[in-house]
Amino acid sequence: MKFNNIDFDTYLKQYPDEKGYFGKYGGSYISPELQVAMQEISEAYYTICKSRKFIDELRRIRKEFQGRPTPISHLERLSNKLGNVQLYVKREDLNHTGAHKLNHCMGEALLAKYMGKKKVIAETGAGQHGVALATAAAYFGLECDIYMGSEDIKKQAPNVARMKILGANVVEVTDGQATLKEAVDAAFAAYSREYKDSIYCIGSVVGPHPFPMMVRDFQSVVGIEAREQFVEMTGELPDAVVACVGGGSNSMGMFSGFLNDPVDIYGVEPLGRGPKLGDHAASLQYGTEGIMHGFNSIMLKDENGEPAPVYSVASGLDYPSSGPEHAFLHDLGRVKYDVVNDEETIDAFFTLSRLEGIIPAIESSHAVAYGMKLAKQMSRGSVLICLSGRGDKDMDYIIEKYGIR
Asked: Is residue 306 domain-shared with residue 356, that is, in the same domain?
């Protein structure tokens, strides 16, 4: 399929280019010293990703340890309540550790072992990437340092406990807003000191090349499975595919399975409290081109052109930029990016829990909320939503802030 002169038959092989660009977005804007480390990672990945031994081992891990493939569930009661449109969810909440993050963490840790590294370093917001990497580190016998903002530590206490139980060293970050952006800053600084013996396992499709490509490739299992399962279940493709977007790992994984199909694709960003700068984290909706954390993308900026303060009820979405591939697909128009606010998100959280017995992560609730909107707008058809994670980590925060509805 061609879209805006891009041939999506070969898209995944064409993008990014050898320098890590998706059009004008991406690249590697880091110090020469760190560039050497990234080149080492890139060369190792390009070698190992074609290795039958690596592919077989990753497949075995996914089947025997992660519990893949995760299923698709038909949300029959919710669909009937909303109208004639049928809603389905890809159940990444049933992936081991409770979210999609383990898909790339096991791949990154396996790469670290291949490269002879002794430690993995990462940032985390909602804690799911931290838990997943701590799990991968325990599985492969690696040291693990996880950097996390103090505000997110307060909101995500269950995941902090899980990381510590798994043997990870959780490093509290108190700079700035003490959320995801500051955690990334601290993790990068640590990696620049320790890169010879460690690997930085970025938690989304962000950062310098090769990470936006590498994380997308590891997460593409979500979209590949979902497409095959949906066709087997219904005999046709969904009319629309929906996923939440912060940095954008779950969404790029999901979208990659459908980019070459006549399917509407929607990325959902957090509008938070509203459109005022500082009240949301909807970079693709309100941002402009800019460089941060080693890559060029669309980002939210303050009056000085620096990354702006951001907010989201979901710790995993409060990031002032988005993955470069999302910026590229946004400009192409292949993916439609829209927003939902906190109130819509929390309503979706409780609605899905009550009607379907599935407690979603707050991040995933953004996608559920938008899927519900689509179902009300469409006269017929089907919507497939990526349920990127489960809501166990969020329940104490939800009850404290919103009570039981």
From this structure: yes
